[in-house]
Amino acid sequence: MVIVGAVILAASFLGTRAQGGLQGFRAAWVSVAVIVFNTLLGFLLLNLAIALGLRLTDAAGFTKPPQTGIDSPVMRIPLVRLTHLAGRRPERVLALRDDQLALIYPSWTRRQVKDLLAESWERSLRFQPYTEFQEKPFHGRYVNVVEPGLRLVRDPGPWPMAAGVHNVWVLGGSTTFGYGLADWETIPSHLQETLRRRWPGAPIHVYNFGQGYFFSGQELALFQSLLAAGSAPPEVALFVDGINEHQAEPFYSGFLRELVRSPWTALQIRDDSPSLPRGEDVVARWLRNKKTAEGICAAWGIKPLFVWQPAPNWKYDLRHHLFATSGAALGVPSHYAALDRLRTSAPETLGRDFLWLADIQIGETRPLYVDRLHYTSAFAREIAERVADRIQQGL
Questions:
Q1: Whole-Å CA distances, 75 to 69, 80, 84, 85, 146
Q2: Is pLDDT at 325 greater than 70 in this prediction?
Q3: What does the DSSP 8-state code read for residue 157?
Q4: Residue 63 has pLDDT above 70, yes or no
Q5: Would you give the distance in Å from CA 119 to the centre of its chain?
Q6: DSSP string spanning 263-312?
Q7: pLDDT of residue 68
Q8: Do 338 and 280 contact (CB within 8 A), yes or no?
């Protein structure tokens, strides 16, 4: 607006010099001022009208106030918020029939599921110097994140951690964080409940350090940064990997790389990450990260456990997946096939601190996912039970 206004003023001044100079300039200035004033007034009135409409839809439950889901101040501008709502893709979960929704969210109302999804997906991330980004502190009804990027579980332990108790850290991606699940339904929360049930009276605290989009390299960086920041070491460190492991680099690297090179073009970059082309390369890198994590754990007296998680397109009948139209839509897990071959041909390569859970959905006829990739609470509980079995076996 400033540039266009300056051009109009300059053109008007030059074009009216023969008609009185200053008088022509004043006429041009008045024209531009009227245009700018009317534009701002129209913008204000439009936002007032949209704000009134959004207040009505918020009260009726069709939309959700931004302070409970979106924490960006810009989203409080009614026109911006309306544009955001109009551009959102409809939640496939909410498009399910009531009987289908009850299979993945038993005893949940449709309104509760809608609020849960808003808290899961409409939060913002924040910068983290070691991992590029991480989950931002957030307080909601179903999703709660506190410093340092820690999602709460049912009956959470204190942070900093208390001494003289059995502390367990769980690191992983969005399936570990529990996108689409409430705090008390995640793998770490179920794990804490299971361990306390098996050892009544034992002081056991499980900490959920799952982060959206993370793979083993970022988990390793986060693990080191927490220890370097002065945290006492946990007794057990659990790394849950598999689904995100194909990423060649952290998810937002393309955007951040372009931001450093040219801020003017950074917003044109898609928020995605290229995949490593060969499954064998994915497994080789994961093994190197695993070895590094084992060395850190040995130095700190921590017992590690590396879990290869289930994936929807690995030995699961997709006819029971409510959000998969084909295997191609979920990607081909060549790294799962590569690791499966390795664990069969050379199990000693993986060591005793490795737990293969990718096959636990063989023969399952239940819907196990609340969306394309993330587990139901029942499936998260089953994964936690398998992990607790390994811990009970002597970890």
A1: 10, 6, 8, 10, 22
A2: no
A3: P
A4: no
A5: 11
A6: TTTGGGS-S--PBPS-HHHHHHHHHHHHHHHHHHHHHHT-EEEEEE---T
A7: 43
A8: yes
Mean pLDDT throughout 251-260?
84
The amino acid occupying position 245 is E
Question: Residue 269 and residue 249: Cα distance in Å, rounded?
Answer: 15
Beta strands at 236-241 and 166-171: parallel, antiparallel or unpaired: parallel
Q: Measure the CA–CA gap between 124 and 79, rounded to whole angstroms.
A: 20
Q: How far apart are CA 234 and CA 304, in angstroms?
A: 10
Cα–Cα distances in angstroms (integers) from residue 65 to residues 70, 140, 382, 383, in the given order = 8, 12, 35, 35
- Residue 124 per-residue DSSP state: -
pLDDT for 208: 98
What mean pLDDT do residues 170-181 have?
98
The token duo for 96 is 């399910």
pTM: 0.82
Look-up: residue for tokens 């009135």?
Answer: 45
Query: Per-residue pLDDT for 326 more than 50?
Result: no
pLDDT at 26: 74
DSSP 151: E
Largest CA distance in the chain: 96
Report which of residues 329 and 275 the model is more confident about.
275
Round to whole Å and give the CA distance between 209 and 154: 14
- Which of 111, 114, 122, 135 minimizes the C-alpha distance to 66? 122
Residues 237 and 293 sit within 8 Å (Cβ to Cβ):
yes
* pLDDT (mean) for 367-381: 97
CA–CA dist 331, 22 (Å, integer):
68
When pLDDT is cut at 50, 70 and 90, the band that residue 328 belongs to is very low
**24 compared with 42, residue with greater pLDDT:** 42
Segments in the chain forming alpha helices (H): 2-15, 22-60, 78-87, 98-104, 110-121, 174-177, 187-198, 216-228, 253-261, 279-300, 334-345, 377-392
**Contact between residue 274 and residue 248 where contact means Cβ atoms under 8 Å apart:** yes
